[in-house]
Amino acid sequence: MSLALDERPKLFRRSAEEPVQLTPGPIQWGTPFFGRDGKKIFATGSTKAGELARLDSKSNQFQPFLGGISANILAFSKDGRSVAYVSYPDNIPWRANRDGSERVQLTSPPLQPASVSWSPDGTQIVFMTLSAHGTRAWIVPSQGGSPRLLLPGDSADQGDPDWSPDGRSIVFATGLFQSRQSSIRVLDLASHKVTVLPGSAGKFSPRWSPDGQFIKADSLDIHTLYLFDVKTQQWSALYKRSSFAYATWSKDGRFLYFLRHSSDPAILRLPVTGGEAKVVVGLKGFPYTGTFKVWLGLDPDDAPLLLRDVSTSDVYALTL
Length: 320
Fold this sequence. Notes:
Elements: E1 2-4, E2 20-23, E3 28-29, E4 33-34, E5 40-47, E6 50-56, E7 61-64, E8 71-76, E9 82-87, E10 93-97, E11 104-105, E12 113-118, E13 124-131, E14 134-141, E15 148-149, E16 159-163, E17 169-174, E18 183-188, E19 194-196, E20 203-208, E21 214-219, E22 224-229, E23 234-240, E24 244-249, E25 255-260, E26 266-271, E27 278-282, E28 297-298, E29 304-309, E30 312-319
Antiparallel strand pairs: 1-2, 3-5, 4-5, 5-30, 6-7, 6-29, 8-9, 9-10, 10-11, 12-13, 13-14, 14-15, 16-17, 17-18, 18-19, 20-21, 21-22, 22-23, 24-25, 25-26, 26-27, 28-29
């Protein structure tokens, strides 16, 4: 929104305390300046927008997906029939059929989800919100309804919540934004008991493997990817190199896909049994964007998804 303040003498103006709105809409305006004749105002205006794109295995090129909607933070239900996503840049969560039809808005501002995770039966979605007070985990019916706090009596952070494959537990990170001393916790939905995973200090962004045997987590400096063995209760470092983001399980649980966003950006695939991470596709020159600048997801066939930046920036003139 662009505003102007009338500085003429009081005889010709309403009030020095009342700025006048010059422009409506979602355009983000740069610093305005007057033209030489004093009758026009010039400013740059930018409109953020994205195009959801899927990597085509045959051409190895990204093609528009779901009609190229401007959305990220996307996840499919376990049966692959439904999809939940967050529109960009307004951060509104939606649930729709796999082809994008019959979409339903899940929440309204000020709640702005930063993650989504389906319950195994497809009836609920758990998500994280960010605010000045930290992170909170919420649950909402997947068909729409009133969201509720996952832990209403807990004032600590609840970041990156993710459902267990059996639907009995939710794993999440805590302390990330308040103390930078994050740890991983598990909520038992039947007993409401919360336990801390041993050795999880300094880790965040947990994601349960499809078979329930492992939980992946990232180090706070996002340089190390860890794997927690649920049976042995032990952690192992799976990847330790350049910075990465959005490590995501393959459908069969054999691989983790992640986005390397360094000087040599790429999507990599890492076998959980050990070995080198292989480049799926290089991203040099790809204008990706998202709620947090970058984002990576997978479709039900493990095809990588990115949000292509299609924002526009123009110079505008406003005649007074």
